[in-house]
Amino acid sequence: MTANQGRNVQAIIQTIAILLGNTVGIWLSYFLIQFFFKGINPDITYPGFRSFLLDGTLLVVTFSFLTTIIISMTNIIKFNFYNISAAIVLLFSSIIYSRFIGLGSTLGSGHLLDAWYMWTPFIIATILLFFSLKNQKSVFRRHSWLKGAKNDDFDYSVFLSFAIAGNKTKKQREDLNNDIKKLESKLEEIGYKPNFNASNYFSDEHEYQPPEIAAREDFNAIEKCRNFLFYYPEKVPTSALIELGYALRDRDNIIICSKDKHTLPFLARGLGDLSENVKLIECETIDRLIKILEENHETYLRK
Predict the structure, then answer these.
(1) SS3 state at 105
(2) Does 173 reside within a domain?
(3) Which domain holds residue 134?
(4) Which of 6, 9, 39, 279 could serve as a FRET partner for 296 with CA atoms 20 to 30 Å apart?
């Protein structure tokens, strides 16, 4: 089962669960009427599905679905297709319901087809609910770098992870930074853009961000990238290793690049054998890495 099929199944199960949760009390009431109260009042009969449609109950369930969509798909008062559509259908359903109540009219002639104004909003709300659950972003998405929920909302093609400040000399840092810029340029040339390179956000090594800000921005970017490329040519203490750990936990497509696997930390050497999402490239120089990716980018990278 692919990831997309898994999300479809999960969304279907959640939709059914919400549908049952919103209607179980109604059907339980009908059951009690039929089997417990019928003997007390012989005139009481089981209302049936037609009554369920025509007495306004379906619209109430529709309201519940729509408010669920509006709340679950609203991210810090940001508008999107789902919450706007749900609000429009909610307004339309409210007008229908209030029209019949206000005018003292019946909600239908007794025939199911005459209740189109009841089941049409319900069907639309159910479809919206399914797709909103499938593509749901948490209301607390701004803090998700602490909780880490992977989704398909990508802002970056490749996150470039390397030792920005880990090398000992200024020249080593400048050389590495130039190598990464050369790599970034080639990635853009072959169609992988935009990319995230943290070194682009400051002009020199005296402008490094405070660690708490850098961590938040890096982790947010990792969550929003389709590919994570870890470039580690030398054994150096670097925060890029933490970024690699976060990317593994966030289930990115990961490319680990090093001169040889023994340069890597011990556990990182076998990651390619544990997950198909992790690929190891051994290369002596940045030019060799660029050539490998240029010729085999569809093997290593995802668009």
Answers:
(1) coil
(2) yes
(3) 3-138
(4) 6
